[in-house]
Please model this.
Amino acid sequence: MRRWLAALVCLWLASGQASASGGEAQRIVSLAPFLTDMLVQLDVSDRLVGVLDDGLLDEKLDSVKRVGGYQTLSRELILSQKPDLVLAWTSGNDPQLLAQLENWGLQVERFDPQRLADIAGMTRELGLLLGVSGRAEQLAVDFEQALVRLQRPINDDAPRVFVQLWDNPLYTVSDQQLIGDALRHCGARNIFGELSVLAPQVGRESVIAADPDLIIVFADEPAQANPWLQRWRQFPQMRAVRNNGLKSLDGDSLVKPTPQLAEGLEGLCNLVWSNAAEKTMSGSR
Model:
């Protein structure tokens, strides 16, 4: 370890962690965008002294120190902010880095929500940790009520969906991660849900053979203008092409496991339900 870094650690430890031992943390470093967003939603973003930079940070955090990106987190920058709490992502942060921070005396709390059902519990846990349980409970209850309102059973007529994350090569989602869980919650079947990889690469021929009712891409532009969806129009025999099942959706609010995900979930469910309704109407003609 560099001498100046060792000296910094020693000086920081000698100064004591007053806020960590005397109350809720006041100097927080967040090593995951969803945890950063959680602090904004809990109205305690003023306690952030360092954040991982994913290029999509809330503008109210412009003055907060960036401590690196996903592959470039800097322990030196983390330590220089003298945090009394580090919020970490269990499966997204380097475990060796987190262990080293703990060995240097920092309090590191890990979170790893993988399902919709995990979000309310994480919200309450953060509220307790940060001394804002009232605000956390409000967010958690509102989210749980939204889940109840939006949930649909998967029946024999459930729409079969292909979610396209990338075009060349094609990447999709399995049911092992949040978007796959969201599809199930809306009452849809993910055509690649049983794959074990979180974001598997698949062949175009496999999608054509599966013949989904819906193909959804995450994009700001409308479906008619989306080049990824335009490529599927070359296969008019596919149900999704022939029955107006090529859809685009702004997926930003679907990728971070926070209570705000309810907004993205509602948009996804509306696509699924409208397709199911169209199938029912066409079948009754």
